[in-house]
Write a structure and sequence with these properties.
Layout (H helix, E strand, L loop, with lengths): L22 H7 L12 E6 L5 E7 L5 E7 L5 E8 L2 E8 L5 E8 L2 E8 L5 E8 L2 E8 L5 E7 L4 E7 L5 E8 L2 E9 L5 E8 L2 E2 L1 E6 L5 E8 L2 E2 L1 E7 L2 E9 L2 E9 L5 E8 L2 E2 L1 E6 L5 E8 L2 E2 L1 E6 L5 E8 L2 E9 L5 E3 H26 L9
Length: 373
């Protein structure tokens, strides 16, 4: 899969939007006259009781342009406004140290652009407006790299794109009224999709698909109102290795496990998150290796284990997860023997072995480490 097509950040000289922190330079940058022309503004000032200027008002002779500067008590500029024909065309806000915080531009009575700055004069966020409403928002990290772009759609809908350090999209999502709505896609650093999900009102609702770094599927699940609902499929190396069904977030229905060739190795049934009824395990050949019955997630009833040949190997009864009665075992020929029978056979063979050892000692002498009575 190719890298997703992503718009690169606009190559803008952001210095044109950064005002010097000093009051004098802020006023000079907002002067509409040329650098080689003497200022022609009429100026008025207001001072506090200590004689410190707290407001400066500058007007052009024709009265069309007006600049207003407000200052903190210590003479540090706190805000500046430019009006043209009575309408605001630019506003600047500064922090307590005089650093530019926000620069806003207006036209026709509507805000057109707003730029937020960090204390080091780096642009943190740049918002463009259409008829006074946000149209696109671009955010930058502390290194000045593109971090997020928000594209506002009709009404309260918007698309959010997050970017990695290399400038590639790492996640795309859709929102409405501040909540996730519709498709959300996550990418790895190579641009490969690793997660796709559907949302309704901030909750998973629809198909969730997870992929590995090469694009092979890992899991596909169905959700409804934030809970698993329907079939979930698990993959290993792109091959289906498990299927199960959920209802309201709990396993409910058939659950099947497969080997790498697609053969069933285990099948069981769930009710409200608990194993219920028959559960079967299989050999690679496809013949059953074990059959059991569950009640409320506990073994209940007869458990039968088989040889690969299909003959019964062992039987054991259970009640509420506890073994009941003797375990019965069978040899490869199908002959039955209880645990007591097997113990007796082992004892019999041990006695025969001991008699044989004594006979050998008589013939060849006692080897080092062998003790007999």
């Amino acid at each position: 899969m190719q890298k997703p097509e992503v718009r690169n950040p606009v190559a803008t000289d952001l210095s044109s939007f950064v005002a010097d922190q000093t009051t004098e330079n802020v006023e000079q940058q907002m002067d509409v006259t040329g650098k080689d022309v003497e200022p022609i503004f009429e100026e008025e000032t207001e001072q506090d009781s200590a004689g410190v200027v707290v407001k400066r008002l500058r007007r052009s002779p024709d009265g069309r342009t007006e600049q207003t500067f407000l200052y903190a008590g210590d003479g540090v500029i706190s805000s500046a406004v430019i009006r043209q024909d009575g309408d605001v065309v630019e506003e600047r806000r500064h922090d307590a140290s005089g650093n530019l915080v926000t620069n806003s531009y207006f036209a026709g009575g509507f805000k057109q652009r707003e730029i937020d700055y960090r204390a080091n004069e780096q642009v943190a966020r740049d918002i463009t407006y259409l008829e006074g409403e946000p149209a696109e928002e671009t955010a930058y990290d502390e290194s000045g790299r593109l971090a997020r772009r928000v594209i506002h759609r009709e009404g309260l809908r918007m698309e959010v794109v997050a970017y990695d350090s290399a400038g590639w999209a790492s996640q795309r999502s859709n929102h409405e009224a501040g909540k996730l709505q519709g498709e959300s896609v996550t990418y790895n650093e190579d641009g490969q999709v690793i997660l796709q999900a559907q949302y309704v009102n901030d909750q998973l609702d629809g198909t969730l698909a997870i992929f590995d770094e090469t694009g092979l599927p890992i899991e596909q699940s169905e959700y409804k109102e934030g809970q698993l609902e329907g079939e979930t499929i698990v993959y290993v190396d792109g091959v289906i290795r498990g299927k199960t069904v959920y209802r309201t977030g709990k396993q409910h229905g058939q659950a099947t496990v497969y080997n790498e060739t697609g053969q069933i190795v285990q099948a069981s049934h769930f009710v409200d998150g608990r194993r219920e009824g028959e559960a079967i395990q299989y050999y690679p050949s496809g013949s059953p290796s074990e059959q059991a019955t569950y009640r409320t997630d506990r073994l209940h009833g007869e458990v039968v284990r088989y040889y690969p040949s299909g003959l019964v190997r062992e039987k054991q009864n259970y009640k509420d997860g506890v073994p009941v009665g003797d375990r019965v075992e069978y040899d490869h020929k199908g002959r039955k023997s209880t645990v007591e029978d097997i113990t007796q056979q082992h004892t019999k063979h041990a006695r025969k072995g001991l008699r044989l050892a004594k006979q050998l000692i008589k013939l060849f002498g006692k080897p080092f480490g062998i003790l007999t009575k």
